[in-house]
Give the backbone structure.
Amino acid sequence: MKVVCLPGDGIGPEVMEAAMRVLDPLPLELESHPFGGEAIEKFGAPLPAPTLEACKQADAVLLGAIGLPKYDGAAVRPEQGLIELRGALDVYANLRPSSDGDKVDLLIVRELVGGIYYGRRGRTEDGLVFDTCEYTEPQIERIARRGFELAQKRSKRLTCVDKANVLATSRLWRQVVERVKGDYSDVELKFMLVDNAAMQIARAPEQFDVIVTENMFGDILSDLAAAVTGGLGLAASASLADGGPGLFEPVHGSAPDIAGKGIANPTAMLRSVAMMLEHAFDEETAARELEQAVELAIREAPTPDLGGTASTTEFADRVVEALSR
Protein backbone atom coordinates (compact mmCIF):
# COMPACT_ATOMS: atom_id res chain seq x y z
CA MET A 1 0.00 0.00 0.00
CA LYS A 2 1.40 3.37 -1.01
CA VAL A 3 1.14 6.64 0.93
CA VAL A 4 2.13 9.86 -0.81
CA CYS A 5 3.48 12.37 1.71
CA LEU A 6 3.24 16.09 1.00
CA PRO A 7 5.29 17.83 3.73
CA GLY A 8 4.44 21.32 2.46
CA ASP A 9 5.48 24.54 4.17
CA GLY A 10 6.47 25.94 7.57
CA ILE A 11 6.17 23.26 10.24
CA GLY A 12 4.75 20.82 7.69
CA PRO A 13 8.04 18.96 7.14
CA GLU A 14 8.65 18.77 10.90
CA VAL A 15 5.31 17.17 11.78
CA MET A 16 5.55 14.98 8.68
CA GLU A 17 8.84 13.59 9.98
CA ALA A 18 7.05 12.55 13.16
CA ALA A 19 4.35 10.86 11.11
CA MET A 20 6.85 8.96 8.98
CA ARG A 21 8.59 7.68 12.11
CA VAL A 22 5.30 6.22 13.32
CA LEU A 23 4.52 4.71 9.91
CA ASP A 24 8.02 3.35 9.27
CA PRO A 25 7.46 -0.07 10.96
CA LEU A 26 4.27 -0.69 8.95
CA PRO A 27 4.21 -2.46 5.57
CA LEU A 28 3.63 0.76 3.64
CA GLU A 29 5.48 2.40 0.77
CA LEU A 30 6.09 6.05 1.64
CA GLU A 31 7.12 8.61 -0.96
CA SER A 32 7.38 12.41 -0.69
CA HIS A 33 6.49 15.01 -3.32
CA PRO A 34 6.68 18.82 -3.46
CA PHE A 35 3.50 20.71 -2.72
CA GLY A 36 2.48 24.23 -1.73
CA GLY A 37 5.03 27.02 -1.39
CA GLU A 38 7.96 24.67 -1.93
CA ALA A 39 6.46 23.59 -5.26
CA ILE A 40 5.81 27.19 -6.32
CA GLU A 41 9.47 28.02 -5.74
CA LYS A 42 10.71 25.01 -7.71
CA PHE A 43 8.05 24.58 -10.40
CA GLY A 44 5.96 27.75 -10.43
CA ALA A 45 2.79 25.93 -9.33
CA PRO A 46 1.60 24.67 -5.92
CA LEU A 47 0.46 21.33 -7.35
CA PRO A 48 2.87 20.17 -10.08
CA ALA A 49 1.56 17.57 -12.50
CA PRO A 50 3.89 14.78 -11.22
CA THR A 51 2.70 15.39 -7.65
CA LEU A 52 -0.94 15.23 -8.69
CA GLU A 53 -0.39 12.03 -10.67
CA ALA A 54 1.39 10.42 -7.72
CA CYS A 55 -1.53 11.33 -5.46
CA LYS A 56 -4.02 9.80 -7.87
CA GLN A 57 -2.05 6.55 -7.94
CA ALA A 58 -1.66 6.34 -4.15
CA ASP A 59 -3.79 4.49 -1.62
CA ALA A 60 -3.74 7.53 0.68
CA VAL A 61 -2.31 11.05 0.72
CA LEU A 62 -0.84 12.55 3.89
CA LEU A 63 -0.40 16.34 3.99
CA GLY A 64 1.65 18.37 6.45
CA ALA A 65 0.74 22.06 6.13
CA ILE A 66 0.79 24.76 3.46
CA GLY A 67 0.97 28.53 3.31
CA LEU A 68 3.68 31.17 3.73
CA PRO A 69 3.30 34.89 4.43
CA LYS A 70 5.18 35.89 1.30
CA TYR A 71 2.40 34.37 -0.83
CA ASP A 72 -0.46 36.19 0.91
CA GLY A 73 -2.34 38.06 -1.79
CA ALA A 74 -0.12 36.69 -4.56
CA ALA A 75 -1.55 35.57 -7.89
CA VAL A 76 -0.28 32.03 -7.26
CA ARG A 77 -0.76 30.80 -3.68
CA PRO A 78 -0.13 27.47 -1.92
CA GLU A 79 -3.81 27.21 -0.92
CA GLN A 80 -4.81 27.05 -4.58
CA GLY A 81 -2.99 23.73 -4.81
CA LEU A 82 -5.03 22.31 -1.95
CA ILE A 83 -8.33 23.34 -3.52
CA GLU A 84 -7.20 21.81 -6.81
CA LEU A 85 -6.04 18.58 -5.13
CA ARG A 86 -9.32 18.13 -3.27
CA GLY A 87 -11.27 18.56 -6.48
CA ALA A 88 -9.01 16.26 -8.51
CA LEU A 89 -9.31 13.46 -5.94
CA ASP A 90 -13.03 14.18 -5.41
CA VAL A 91 -12.59 13.89 -1.65
CA TYR A 92 -16.06 15.23 -1.00
CA ALA A 93 -16.47 14.07 2.61
CA ASN A 94 -14.34 15.98 5.12
CA LEU A 95 -14.48 14.45 8.60
CA ARG A 96 -13.50 16.75 11.47
CA PRO A 97 -13.80 15.11 14.91
CA SER A 98 -13.73 17.26 18.05
CA SER A 99 -13.54 15.87 21.56
CA ASP A 100 -12.62 17.14 25.00
CA GLY A 101 -12.10 13.61 26.32
CA ASP A 102 -15.14 13.94 28.55
CA LYS A 103 -18.57 15.24 27.58
CA VAL A 104 -17.92 16.48 24.04
CA ASP A 105 -17.50 14.04 21.17
CA LEU A 106 -18.84 15.49 17.96
CA LEU A 107 -18.04 14.86 14.31
CA ILE A 108 -18.51 17.49 11.60
CA VAL A 109 -19.04 16.04 8.12
CA ARG A 110 -18.28 18.86 5.71
CA GLU A 111 -19.03 18.72 1.99
CA LEU A 112 -15.63 19.58 0.53
CA VAL A 113 -15.73 19.92 -3.26
CA GLY A 114 -18.81 22.06 -3.89
CA GLY A 115 -20.38 25.29 -2.73
CA ILE A 116 -18.90 28.76 -2.84
CA TYR A 117 -15.29 27.59 -2.95
CA TYR A 118 -15.87 25.86 -6.28
CA GLY A 119 -18.68 27.94 -7.77
CA ARG A 120 -18.46 30.52 -10.51
CA ARG A 121 -16.63 33.71 -9.59
CA GLY A 122 -15.42 36.84 -11.25
CA ARG A 123 -15.55 40.58 -11.64
CA THR A 124 -17.75 42.55 -14.02
CA GLU A 125 -16.77 45.66 -15.97
CA ASP A 126 -18.79 47.86 -13.61
CA GLY A 127 -16.79 46.62 -10.59
CA LEU A 128 -19.11 43.93 -9.23
CA VAL A 129 -17.23 40.98 -7.71
CA PHE A 130 -19.03 37.67 -7.15
CA ASP A 131 -18.48 34.18 -5.72
CA THR A 132 -21.34 31.78 -6.36
CA CYS A 133 -22.56 29.05 -4.00
CA GLU A 134 -23.62 26.15 -6.21
CA TYR A 135 -24.87 22.65 -5.36
CA THR A 136 -26.58 19.82 -7.22
CA GLU A 137 -28.85 17.17 -5.72
CA PRO A 138 -26.32 14.34 -6.28
CA GLN A 139 -23.61 16.33 -4.47
CA ILE A 140 -25.90 16.84 -1.48
CA GLU A 141 -27.22 13.29 -1.46
CA ARG A 142 -23.83 11.61 -1.29
CA ILE A 143 -22.59 13.72 1.63
CA ALA A 144 -25.94 13.29 3.39
CA ARG A 145 -25.66 9.52 3.10
CA ARG A 146 -22.13 9.66 4.45
CA GLY A 147 -23.42 11.65 7.41
CA PHE A 148 -26.27 9.23 8.13
CA GLU A 149 -23.95 6.22 7.88
CA LEU A 150 -21.48 7.73 10.31
CA ALA A 151 -24.30 8.65 12.69
CA GLN A 152 -25.49 5.03 12.61
CA LYS A 153 -22.09 3.94 13.95
CA ARG A 154 -22.21 6.52 16.77
CA SER A 155 -25.19 7.82 18.76
CA LYS A 156 -27.64 7.86 15.84
CA ARG A 157 -28.18 11.63 15.93
CA LEU A 158 -27.58 13.83 12.89
CA THR A 159 -27.88 17.61 12.70
CA CYS A 160 -28.02 19.23 9.25
CA VAL A 161 -26.75 22.82 9.43
CA ASP A 162 -27.80 25.36 6.80
CA LYS A 163 -29.19 28.86 6.21
CA ALA A 164 -32.53 27.81 4.75
CA ASN A 165 -34.27 31.02 5.83
CA VAL A 166 -32.14 32.94 3.32
CA LEU A 167 -30.35 30.70 0.80
CA ALA A 168 -31.91 28.68 -2.02
CA THR A 169 -29.03 26.19 -1.86
CA SER A 170 -29.82 25.56 1.81
CA ARG A 171 -33.47 24.92 1.01
CA LEU A 172 -32.36 22.33 -1.54
CA TRP A 173 -30.12 20.80 1.15
CA ARG A 174 -33.13 20.41 3.43
CA GLN A 175 -35.23 18.78 0.72
CA VAL A 176 -32.54 16.27 -0.22
CA VAL A 177 -31.52 15.43 3.35
CA GLU A 178 -35.15 14.94 4.35
CA ARG A 179 -35.63 12.56 1.42
CA VAL A 180 -32.47 10.58 2.22
CA LYS A 181 -33.62 10.30 5.84
CA GLY A 182 -36.18 7.74 4.63
CA ASP A 183 -33.38 5.20 4.21
CA TYR A 184 -32.07 5.73 7.75
CA SER A 185 -35.10 5.41 10.00
CA ASP A 186 -32.95 4.64 13.05
CA VAL A 187 -31.19 8.04 12.92
CA GLU A 188 -32.75 11.08 14.57
CA LEU A 189 -32.52 14.09 12.22
CA LYS A 190 -32.56 17.73 13.25
CA PHE A 191 -32.14 20.88 11.13
CA MET A 192 -30.41 23.96 12.54
CA LEU A 193 -29.55 27.36 11.09
CA VAL A 194 -25.83 28.01 10.92
CA ASP A 195 -25.82 31.09 13.16
CA ASN A 196 -27.65 29.18 15.87
CA ALA A 197 -25.35 26.19 15.36
CA ALA A 198 -22.30 28.38 15.93
CA MET A 199 -23.79 29.70 19.16
CA GLN A 200 -24.74 26.21 20.34
CA ILE A 201 -21.26 24.78 19.59
CA ALA A 202 -19.71 27.60 21.61
CA ARG A 203 -22.26 27.29 24.42
CA ALA A 204 -23.02 23.57 24.70
CA PRO A 205 -21.13 21.41 22.17
CA GLU A 206 -22.00 18.23 24.07
CA GLN A 207 -25.51 18.32 22.57
CA PHE A 208 -24.17 17.32 19.13
CA ASP A 209 -23.18 13.94 17.74
CA VAL A 210 -22.77 14.23 13.94
CA ILE A 211 -23.19 17.50 12.03
CA VAL A 212 -23.47 17.50 8.24
CA THR A 213 -23.17 20.75 6.36
CA GLU A 214 -21.96 22.51 3.23
CA ASN A 215 -18.42 23.58 2.43
CA MET A 216 -18.04 27.09 3.85
CA PHE A 217 -20.25 26.51 6.90
CA GLY A 218 -18.27 23.35 7.66
CA ASP A 219 -14.99 25.20 7.29
CA ILE A 220 -16.02 27.77 9.89
CA LEU A 221 -17.88 25.51 12.33
CA SER A 222 -15.16 22.85 12.43
CA ASP A 223 -12.58 25.44 13.48
CA LEU A 224 -14.96 26.68 16.16
CA ALA A 225 -15.52 23.13 17.42
CA ALA A 226 -11.77 22.57 17.54
CA ALA A 227 -11.27 25.80 19.49
CA VAL A 228 -13.75 24.82 22.21
CA THR A 229 -12.23 21.34 22.61
CA GLY A 230 -8.52 22.11 22.80
CA GLY A 231 -7.49 24.21 19.82
CA LEU A 232 -6.53 23.80 16.17
CA GLY A 233 -3.12 22.44 17.10
CA LEU A 234 -4.76 19.20 18.22
CA ALA A 235 -7.31 18.81 15.43
CA ALA A 236 -7.08 16.17 12.71
CA SER A 237 -9.09 15.62 9.54
CA ALA A 238 -9.84 13.03 6.89
CA SER A 239 -11.19 13.87 3.44
CA LEU A 240 -12.71 10.82 1.76
CA ALA A 241 -13.78 9.91 -1.75
CA ASP A 242 -15.80 7.00 -3.06
CA GLY A 243 -13.16 4.49 -4.07
CA GLY A 244 -10.18 6.80 -4.64
CA PRO A 245 -7.41 7.79 -2.23
CA GLY A 246 -8.31 9.84 0.80
CA LEU A 247 -6.50 12.98 1.93
CA PHE A 248 -5.45 13.17 5.58
CA GLU A 249 -4.12 16.36 7.16
CA PRO A 250 -3.88 18.31 10.40
CA VAL A 251 -6.16 21.30 10.61
CA HIS A 252 -3.51 23.74 11.80
CA GLY A 253 -1.63 26.04 9.45
CA SER A 254 2.04 26.15 8.57
CA ALA A 255 2.95 28.29 11.65
CA PRO A 256 5.95 29.99 10.01
CA ASP A 257 6.72 31.83 13.26
CA ILE A 258 7.90 28.59 14.89
CA ALA A 259 9.11 26.72 11.80
CA GLY A 260 12.62 25.36 12.21
CA LYS A 261 12.62 25.70 16.00
CA GLY A 262 11.79 22.05 16.62
CA ILE A 263 8.89 22.82 18.96
CA ALA A 264 5.89 22.15 16.71
CA ASN A 265 3.21 19.95 18.25
CA PRO A 266 2.72 16.87 15.99
CA THR A 267 -0.50 15.78 17.73
CA ALA A 268 -2.85 16.83 14.93
CA MET A 269 -0.66 15.16 12.31
CA LEU A 270 -0.44 11.91 14.27
CA ARG A 271 -4.19 11.91 14.86
CA SER A 272 -4.59 12.38 11.10
CA VAL A 273 -2.37 9.33 10.62
CA ALA A 274 -4.70 7.41 12.92
CA MET A 275 -7.66 8.47 10.78
CA MET A 276 -5.73 7.30 7.70
CA LEU A 277 -5.09 3.90 9.27
CA GLU A 278 -8.80 3.56 10.05
CA HIS A 279 -10.42 4.91 6.92
CA ALA A 280 -7.86 4.12 4.19
CA PHE A 281 -6.51 0.80 5.43
CA ASP A 282 -9.26 -0.53 7.76
CA GLU A 283 -6.70 -0.85 10.56
CA GLU A 284 -8.95 0.19 13.43
CA THR A 285 -6.86 -1.53 16.09
CA ALA A 286 -3.68 0.22 14.93
CA ALA A 287 -5.56 3.51 14.78
CA ARG A 288 -6.79 3.18 18.37
CA GLU A 289 -3.30 2.22 19.57
CA LEU A 290 -1.83 5.29 17.92
CA GLU A 291 -4.50 7.54 19.41
CA GLN A 292 -3.76 6.14 22.88
CA ALA A 293 -0.01 6.62 22.38
CA VAL A 294 -0.58 10.24 21.38
CA GLU A 295 -2.75 10.85 24.46
CA LEU A 296 0.05 9.42 26.59
CA ALA A 297 2.60 11.73 24.97
CA ILE A 298 0.35 14.74 25.53
CA ARG A 299 0.37 13.93 29.26
CA GLU A 300 4.00 12.88 29.65
CA ALA A 301 5.89 14.89 26.99
CA PRO A 302 3.85 18.00 26.17
CA THR A 303 5.23 20.54 23.72
CA PRO A 304 5.45 24.25 24.63
CA ASP A 305 2.00 25.07 23.26
CA LEU A 306 0.60 22.63 25.82
CA GLY A 307 2.63 24.10 28.65
CA GLY A 308 5.53 21.66 28.45
CA THR A 309 9.10 21.71 27.20
CA ALA A 310 9.29 18.70 24.86
CA SER A 311 10.53 19.17 21.34
CA THR A 312 8.74 17.76 18.31
CA THR A 313 11.27 14.92 18.24
CA GLU A 314 10.88 14.17 21.96
CA PHE A 315 7.09 14.05 21.60
CA ALA A 316 7.45 11.63 18.69
CA ASP A 317 9.96 9.58 20.71
CA ARG A 318 7.35 9.16 23.43
CA VAL A 319 4.71 8.05 20.92
CA VAL A 320 7.05 5.53 19.27
CA GLU A 321 8.08 4.20 22.68
CA ALA A 322 4.45 3.70 23.69
CA LEU A 323 3.68 1.90 20.44
CA SER A 324 6.63 -0.46 20.85
CA ARG A 325 5.46 -1.80 24.21
Remarks:
- The longest strand covers residues 2-8.
- The CA atoms of residues 123 and 129 lie 4 Å apart.
- The two ends are 25 Å apart (CA to CA).
- The chain has a mean pLDDT of 97.
